């Protein structure tokens, strides 16, 4: 498909857009402590759906959103869920050329270390 606008916009699925919106909820939760649990719970479903996709075309996005899901889990002090979330997605690293998902995984690892002391 061609036309005005960025090329990536034509391949954005509802699943991808939901996951991107959920990343915003994770960020917002950090700034609105009174609604943190609700915001992180709302973010969890769409992030989980995207992170579990095995389609080779969305591996980068799946890994990226797995890191966001793990970050949301660490913010809710759910260490075991955050660790479990990262097990499968890390297998994807060798297939991804972008530096963004590995950087997000590194950030998640730092958050886990702070949480468990």
TrEMBL record:
Domain of life: Bacteria
Protein name: Uncharacterized protein
């Amino acid at each position: 498909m061609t036309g005005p606008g960025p090329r990536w916009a034509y391949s954005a699925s509802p699943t991808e857009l939901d996951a991107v919106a959920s990343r915003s909820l994770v960020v917002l939760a950090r700034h609105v402590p009174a609604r943190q649990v609700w915001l992180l719970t709302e973010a969890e479903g769409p992030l989980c759906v995207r992170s579990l996709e095995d389609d080779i075309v969305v591996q980068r996005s799946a890994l990226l959103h797995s890191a966001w899901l793990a970050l949301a889990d660490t913010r809710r002090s759910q260490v075991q869920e955050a660790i479990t979330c990262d097990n499968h997605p890390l297998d994807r690293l060798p297939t991804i050329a972008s530096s963004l998902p590995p950087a997000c995984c590194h950030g998640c690892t730092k958050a886990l270390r702070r949480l468990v002391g």
